[in-house]
Amino acid sequence: MKKTFTLSLLIGATFFCTNNFLNSNPVGAPAGRTGSPADGQTCGASGCHGVTPTDVNNVITSDVPTTGYVPSTTYTITVNITGGGVRKGFQVSPQNNDGTLMGTIAAGAGNKIVNSKYVTHSSAKTTNPSTWTFSWTAPAKGTGAINFYGAFVNGFSNVSKQVFTVQEATGTNIAKNNDNNQFTVFPNPVTKNVSVSFYNNENSNVSINIISLDGKQSETVYENNLNSGIQNLNLELNNFKAGIYILQLNVGNKICYKKIVIQ
């Protein structure tokens, strides 16, 4: 009777340990797993997930304008993992080829900083899609293009990687970033409140609409006449169900768009 009881405990313990290893590390990836030239490995390395990662696009996105980042400006970086994996996680770092952190990073909800230059999940997610955001403050003028290296886990045997590049705004591009067609939305994903920041060159009517991807839902959440200058608007989005939407900013006769995730 005693032997049977001991064997049952051993079987239960073995299953518990194995089950914890089946998916993304629930408290974050160890440092140096982004796949960057300096790191030389991803979460697929031997001793971790032990699989060859696939190359993907559009897992890492940002609100850096197409004209490039403005030095010392803070932007939102988004990691969005889709798929049916039981647990999902990531690690991202903006680095040069020597592994030096480019700019500064600050963790958002559900993620943390490791060894000062890596952002990783602090709690693995099970939703599809699973989304995290963190802040990145661009480096000094003249730094040039920045590569964000990222590795992603979608269940134990599904590891992928991406190199996401942002350019530096130079010359006339910097001036364009002071135009009202450049704006930031934070945080993203949104829970209840969101901050919309932009610059308008002249006094004008400003309105903000939230539009569902299928176009069936559209609601004006802000409208007012504003003086010229930097604008920071705080909006409540309690009336919207969880999903992906388009935030439409109308400033005078100009219209700009930003994709947002409402949780």
Describe the structure.
This protein is mainly β and 263 residues long. It has 2 domains: 23-166, Reeler domain (Immunoglobulin-like); 178-262, Immunoglobulin-like (Sandwich). Helices cover 10% and strands 43% of the residues. The protein is built from 2 helices and 17 strands. It has helices spanning 2-21, 172-176; strands spanning 54-55, 60-62, 74-81, 88-95, 104-106, 111-114, 118-121, 130-137, 146-154, 159-166, 183-186, 193-200, 204-212, 218-226, 229-236, 243-251, 254-262. It has a 6-stranded mixed sheet with strand order 1-10-9-4-7-6, with no helix packed on it. Strands 2-3-8-5 form a 4-stranded antiparallel sheet, with no helix packed on it. The chain has a 4-stranded antiparallel sheet with strand order 14-13-16-17, with no helix packed on it. The longest helix is centred in the first third of the chain and has 20 residues, at 2-21. It is globular, with a radius of gyration of 22 Å. Residues 1-23 and 172-181 have low confidence and may be disordered.
Short key terms for the protein model shown above:
263 residues, mainly beta, Immunoglobulin-like, 2 domains, 6-stranded mixed sheet, 4-stranded antiparallel sheet, 2 helices, 17 strands, globular, disordered N terminus
Number of domains: 2
| Assigned CATH architecture of the largest domain | Sandwich
CATH fold call of the largest domain: Immunoglobulin-like
If strands are numbered along the chain, what order do they take across the biggest sheet?
A: 1-10-9-4-7-6
| Biggest sheet record | 6 strands, mixed
Radius of gyration: 22 Å
CATH superfamily of the largest domain: Reeler domain
* CATH class category of the largest domain: Mainly Beta
Query: What is the number of strand segments?
Result: 17
Indicate the mean pLDDT: 82
Proportion of β residues? 35-45%
Q: Please work out how many helical segments DSSP would assign.
A: 2
Structural class, judged by helices and strands?
Answer: mainly beta
Which H/E pattern describes the elements?
HEEEEEEEEEEHEEEEEEE
User: Span between N and C termini?
Assistant: 52 Å
Percent helix range: under 10%
The general outline is globular
The low-confidence parts are 1-23, 172-181
